[in-house]
Amino acid sequence: MSASASRILIVDDSEDSADITAAYLENSGFQDIRFARSAADAYAMLGLESTAPDADGCTFDLVIMDIMMPEIDGIEACARIRLSPTGRDLPILMLSGVRDADALNQAFIAGANDFVGKPVSQIDLTARVRTLLRFKREQERRQLREAELQKRHKELERGTLDGTLVDPLTRLATASVIDVTLRSCMETGVSACLALIQIDELAAFRARHGDEATDELIRKVAGVIARVPAPLTAVLTAYEPGAFMIVEPNARDVSTMQDTCELARRRVADLEIRHGNSIHSTFVTASSAASLGLANALIDLPANLLSRFQRGWTRGDTHVEIA
Which of the residues bear the PTM 4-aspartylphosphate (predicted)? Predict the structure, then answer.
């Protein structure tokens, strides 16, 4: 989100003070600025007094609020905003012309994220505003990643992998789980272990038994793999039809993931599903590969792992590499 796209609410009973704050923000590229002359006005604009924010349905990315205001001061208003779903994660920057340590402490206890003293410095104000907006964007990204990962993990834990999850049209959605996890590892500077488990000779099975039987095979294999013990932090996804990926953030080595892969292959073999179109095995088998990647070399790990499979690694086995 650029500065011009950020919506900021200035809550200040002093029109002159609010105009100065707005002018500094506009000089720094912020264009969407709204004003509230009291805490009550701010409540209405934030949607605290109704079921929807503001009369035109707008939401805000940041609130800049003066501590000293009549009737309801900034500290009480901050606490009220924090109690609402709308304002629970909303960045709040407090302004005050009085450097009272007790008042500042009360403001932070009420939920304020930062403080700027009056008279306001444009450099100080914009630096703190940009920092809070970056924090908000990162928090929103993390919440989205966590929600998607939890949803996928629960689906696979229940063994409810259905046709829509492995459909090629949804490959980007499933692959994105791996992508966001690896990007998070890169951002935090930690390694990750990635494993690929793939049904052997799936195309030959489909040619012999048809699409319906193949989809049922994928469902059964997915259910088996989902129930294989894995590291607590590991996330399992359907990468493409007949191929499943497991990512373990902050992994120190590949030994645990290797054990998981080998157990998964044995469980697939134990299903004893007749292949009927293989010169290698009577029953359906699976192959796997595990690779440990460092933080600066993670984003290409899924594609590299799949490429190694396609170059003809031995079927029905587990391979280990370190990227």
Answer: 66
